[in-house]
Amino acid sequence: DYITTCTDIHGVRSRYLAQSLSELGAHCSRPDGAFYVTANFDAWHSELKERGVLNSLQLANYLLENHEIATLPGSAFGVEDSELSLRLSSSYMDFESETDSARLLDAWNRHATDELFMAPEIHPNFNNAIAAFATFVEDLSE
Fold it and tell me: How many CA atoms lie within 13 A of 76 on its CB side?
């Protein structure tokens, strides 16, 4: 039961991450694994090139330095380096301590829908990361 519950929780979080980034305009893989999503930002190739970002490693560094978003370059996972793709993990945000894990498990047991479970008051760091990605995309439009 514990493994099934953990898999279900991470599945909801990964789907929420992919959906949120897709709504911002990124192309995301359908999360088949428990907590990994690949997101592609080629839609902003020109805007990123103007900022000196030409590959996935530079994109990962740009996000970390300018938006405090930690990601891994897609090139580290076999994606062509020229693609502006990142590997994202939803596994540790809001699971920083045993208390956090217990709080999330309790919330999982109390909430009937994925939307309620993913609320900002339950997943503050996770939702802050989504907001940081939104700021990143907005900044590219300026």
Answer: 12
Segment (H or E) for 73: strand 72-73
Burial class (CB in 10 A: 0-12, 13-18, 19+), 138: exposed
Place of tokens 């930002």: 41
What pTM did the predictor assign? Answer: 0.90
Nearest CA-CA partner of 87 in 51, 112, 63: 63
Q: How many CB atoms lie within 10 A of CB 32?
A: 9
> Residue 115: which residues within 8 A CB-CB, separation 6 or more?
none
Sign for the CA dihedral angle at 63, 68, 71, 75 comes to positive
- Integer Cα distance of 78 and 1 in angstroms: 34
Residue 74, CB-side half-sphere exposure with 13 Å CA sphere = 20
pLDDT digits (tens, 9 = 90+) for 94-107: 788 888 888 898 99
Question: Could you tell me how many residues make up the chain?
Answer: 142
Q: Do residues 104 and 122 lie in contact, with contact meaning Cβ atoms separated by under 8 Å?
A: yes
